[in-house]
Structures are given as C-alpha cells and as structure tokens.
Amino acid sequence: MARGVGPPLRLLLLLLLQLLALPAGRGNRTGPESLYVSEYFSQSAQKLSFYSWYGNAKLFHFRVPEDTVLLRWLLQASRGKGPECTNMEITVHFRYGAPPVINPLGTRFPANATVRPSYNISITLSSAVQNTTFVNVTTPAAGDWFIAAHLPEAAGRIEVKGFSTPCPYMFQADMFVLRLTDMPVLEPGVAMPQTVVSPAKPLHVKVFVPRHAAGMRFELRSCVTSEQKVCAMRVVLGSITLPQSFQRIVTCMGNVNCSLALDSPPWEKWLQITVESLGAANASVSVEMLVSFTACRPGSTSSFLNFSSLNQSQTGPRPGSAGAAGSSTLSTGEASRNVSDQRSFCLQNQPVVREDLDVVSVRYRLLNSPSVPVNSLSPTLLLLNLNTGMDSGGSLVVSLLLNKTFVSLANATVVACVSAASPVLSLNATQNCSTAFFQGYPLSVSTSSAEAMLIVLYPQTDDWFLSLQLICPKGQGECNAAEAKVTVFAYLTPCFNDCGPYGQCSLLRRHGYLYAGCSCKAGWGGWSCTDDTKAQSVSAQNLATLLLTLSNLMFLPAIAVAVYRYYLVEASVYTYTMFFSTFYHACDQPGVAVMCIMDYDTLQYCDFLGSVVSIWVTILCMSRVKKILKYVLFVLGTLLIAMSLQLDRRGVWNMMGPCLFALIIMIAAWVYHGVKRRHCYPSSWKRWVFYLLPGITLAFIAISVYAFMETNENYYYTHSIWHVLVACSVAFLLPPRDKHKKPWAWSQKLTCRYQICQNDREELYAVT
C-alpha cells in the first residue's frame, strides 16, 4: 500500500488549498465578470529508487488546462518505520512540455547536445516519517507538465533479494489548479476597456496569436484611477514555463500610453496577459487595451509542385514521359519567379513530410530535395512537427551539411536557428536565436566548417522550426545575389546513437506515456553513454570476462571426483552447471568481450537452475539415503526448483529453500545411521578433519562473499571467487564411493578370451 496522507487529512488539505488559492471575494466570485473553478488531479504514489540512470527517476505526467491562473503542487514524501530507514534527501525536478533533463551524477553529455539545467527542489526526510511540500506557479503555461523524483546516487552494492530489507521511500504528486472560466478575449485592432478592481484582484485577458505573425504590439492607454491618483500598473505577457521562463513584464506609471513589442510571438496559441494595479488597496483602475499584429507573408513552392514531388518521391518519375518533362519545366519557371519575388516575402517555406517509423521515432523528409536553397533576403523555414504529445520522450537531431560547390561567396556563413512555437525571422539583422518566449538553439555552417549538428534532449511538445539564412561579414548588400545549398537531416530518435556500444536504450513507460533512457555499462556514463571518465579499458574487460568464465573450470576437479566415486548423475549436473555458467557470463559482459551462444534469458535461467540443482544433489548425495529414494528426490527437487525459478529468479529462497530442505534430510539420515550403528556418523575423524570441515568452511565463505561483499565495482573478482569456492567445496563434500564398488579399471581378461566372472550370483547356476 502506498504511504501518504490519510483520506481525512487529505480532504482538509484540499479545502485549505482552495481557500488559500481563491482570491478575496464571496464564494468563487471575484467580481461581476470573473468566475474561478478549482480542479484537483492526483496520481498514485511511487516507490523511489537510488539514482544510477534515468530509469531510476520516477516520472509524473500532468496536463494543465487552458486559462489556468494558479497551479499548486502538493508533494508528499514518506519513508518506512524500520531500523533500516535513515535520513534521506529526495530531489524533485519540474519541467514544462517534456520530461526534465537531469544530471545528478555530474557526467558529461554528448557533443552538440543542448543542456539547460532543470528546476528542482529538495525534500528532506529526517526525524519525521512524512514530509508535505507545496510549490506554487502563477499563470502556468497550458499543456504537459512533468515531475521527476529520485533518491541520491546508488551505492553500487549488489543486494541479494531476501537477505536484506530495503527501506521503502514513497513519493506522490498531486496537482491543484485554479482556472478562470470566462477570461476576456482581446481582438486584434479593437480597443477593449477593462477595470482592475483592486491590487488583490489582477485582471487576466488572453489573445490568440495567428500563424505567420512576425510581431505583436500591446498597448495600455487611457488609465484612470477611482481616487484620481497617479496610475501605476504592471503588465505581464506570457505564461510561466520551467525550467526557464520568458515572461515579458512592463511597468506603466502615469497617464501616458504604455506599450510593449514582441518579435516572433508563439503561433496559433493563446497568449495570456495579466494586468495588476500597483496603487492603493481600495482603488480601482480603468484602462484600455489594444493588441495589433505584424503579418509575415510567406513564400513557398506551389501546392501542385508539392503534390507532384510527393508522388515522384514515392513512385519515381518515368524517364522520357511527358509528365516528367512538364514537371521539370514548371519547377524551373517557379524557381525563377521565386528569385524575382523573394524580396516581398519575409520567409521561404520548404515543405516537410513527417514520417513515423516507430515509438518515439520520426523522420522528416523534404519533398523537393534534401538540399534547400538559402539566401540573405529572407530566411528559409522548415517545420518539424513534434506536437503529438508522444514525441517529447526522445532526442531531436538536426544535422546541416553545406554544399561548397553552390556557395558563390567564400566568406559567407549560413546561420541557422532551431526554435519551438515560432520561428526566428530576423537572423540577418541581429543573428540572435531567440523568439518572444523561447531561447532557440543556434547552428552555423561555412566553407571552413561545412557540417553542424544539434541534439535536443527531450524536446518539448510543440511545433519546432528550423530557420536558415545567409550572412555576409561585410553586410547584406554583398550577399544579395548569393545563394547556398544546405542539406538538412532531421529525425527524432529514442536514444541518440542508440546509446553507443557501451549502453542499452530502454523504453520506459508511465501510464500511457513513453520515453527512453540509456543504461550504461563497463564504467561508461552520461546521457548517451559517452562519458569515459570511469570507463573500463578493453584489457580490463577481457580480464573480467576471462575471470568469470574460466573460474567455472574449477568444477573440473569436482566432476573428476564424482566420476571416480561413481556419482555419475551428480557429475552430469556439475557439467551442466559449468557449461551454462561459463557461457552465461560470457554473454553477460557489458563491454566488447561478449559471446552469446543462445538467447541471454535462456542462458541466465539455465545458469541459475544449474547452480541451485548442484547444491541440491550434493547435499542429498551426502545424506547417504537409498538410491531409489535419492533419485526420486533428485527429479522431484529439480522440477520444483525449475518452477520456483520461473516465478522469481532472483529470490533468495530459491536457493535457501532447497538447501535447508536437503540439510534436514541429510541430518535426519545421519542421525538414523548414527543410532543404527551406535556411534557418530560419519565415523571417521579423518573424514571430518580433511573433507567435511574444509568443505563446509569453503561453502560458508562462498555464501558470505555472494551475499554481502559483491558490488558493481568488484563483481568480476568476487563472483569469480564465488565460483572457485563453491566448486572446491563440492569436491570436498562429496562422500566416498560405496565399499562394494571397486575403482575404475580395465576388466581382467584371460588369454583364451574368456572373461572372469565377478558376479556372485553366477555360482547358483554353476554346472557340477
């Protein structure tokens, strides 16, 4: 059961949240034209893990509705009450639009990757078993919000399931929102009068930004106060997004008009505007608000050409056909018209097709050609659609390659910018890769550096744009007649470079949301397993593989002893264990020294099965029960062990259960033999001193190493020692052969080819 606040306390907290969040007024009313509605969203608690890779972070995914003016997170952390529970610090990360990009281990990110620190807080669990924390966000952006929580770095110790009880640390995130149901809408070009009742009741309005809006201008005018004092207002444009927020704030003093201009506002989105009074507490303020947009005229190839290019890319043109010749002629004519008219366009659109390949895997294909023309008069624009809600869990990769043969100016540079929500339309003027509410990611290629790559980790859900423009160092007049060809490769992948040779890309899930992360091996680290600070060398990897595989050859003495003493079934089990343990560890290696003769899961299951069955048959062999009973127990125990391993392969009782049961049988058999013979069993002190005590000592040391000493760092050595100790203990513990059986030897034969009979029963049938 998830630990957390009990139902009565949770209801009280919810009521308290509503009372604290609602503005002053009667009920839910803050004035004659404002109605607030509160909504509560909750998700089940999750058990936290110590951090070693992104899969250890527990993700919570919420969706904030439109017109939300207040967001309040209720974060509840708790721990168990046992003695194994200690003081703990929980780190909680927040991000809008995509899962947080975090780096608790301080490792390196891949080259060309964009990293912006996440917004995070720490929650400490000390003497209190439970901690409740509130986080407020005013005027949050509508859409996807993500929370990731984790414990500190993992210690690296390998714990055997069942030997120790880890302390449960639980975390739960609940979301409370306050939403305005009738938010006034500003119409472009129409002045709208509004009244701010008091400083405690800010005014919220919104305006819809159309597509191809190059700029936006907001004006606040005709400001009049009820007490005839100086008008003091503060205007906030935009919503808060974490980890970075780009709200635009302007303070208006006096009765003069106040304005704020924005370049590249977010296209096809509602923009929230908050107007607050800075005057006296009881003074109302009347104002007029006006919004206007600057339109951008896009230029692009005709829709007929796009459709024709799409058909040709799928079926291919037929050489010599009239359709192919006509299309070529039309393309040439259209291109000449674009060159002559490009001065009247603020951007040049290039048609892009989104091709879904798999989960969190998308390829963007340009219809006309992989290369796009870039000039200095207007930016070339490519739309990269990432607004499905399921694209933010991967990595967006954008690669540019400049065709040097098409660059007419040797010192010219193609400047590019990747941005979300709206494109950058003024690269030629400022070369600043930023829009009204987003800081983009710049790229550039030139004849001296013709390639550039950008990796956006967990891109936020939105429409993304790639803007390209030709820049000349001596001014744009030098570039007016110049043109460059740039080949663009853009795709969304779950893990960049598939986590490399020392990592594994894992697809993670939280309810219906899918995202990917890299699990690194062989000491490598980082987001994409590219940090080699603690990486193992190839020689160290080869040494580890040799230790873990060749240490199983220590079963050869045990097999030889078993065969010599006529324990053929036991020898077969030891051979099976040696074989599968060797090849399982050869397949289980994290580095380049890997060899898998069959499926990894099959090898692991056979290795675990052989290990437990070897212990089972050894102890039963020591018990000296009747052969028929021993073989029945062999088969029955093996079947039960196979079933238990299928249920829980790593459970400690899968090994301890058969061991304890076999020990009970052995002790009972030894007591029976001792009572029957009226002396200790085994009766020989040499058997105890030279065989049983060394074997038992080796077995206890092996169990101690396996259960308490193995870590991720020393696994190759300690587990190899486990192999050696277990194999040696088996050789010591196997009982001597039966007295009536003679050692292996060649049969005695007569010169006349008659064999001497050694069966005593033949005397009954002797001819007299």
From TrEMBL:
Compartment(s): Cell membrane
Cleaved signal peptide residues: 1-27
Residue ranges, annotated region (Disordered): 311-336
Chief localization: membrane
Ranges where the EGF-like domain occurs: 491-530
Transmembrane segments annotated in the record for this chain: 543-568, 628-647, 653-672, 688-709, 715-734
Keyword Membrane: yes
Disulfide bonds: 495-505, 520-529
UniProt topology in membrane: Multi-pass membrane protein
InterPro entries, per the entry: EGF, NGX6/PGAP6/MYMK
Assigned GO CC terms: plasma membrane
Domain of life: Eukaryota
Keyword set, alphabetical order: Cell membrane, Disulfide bond, EGF-like domain, Membrane, Signal, Transmembrane, Transmembrane helix
Family: Belongs to the TMEM8 family.
Name of the featured protein: TMM8A factor
Encoding gene per record: Tmem8a
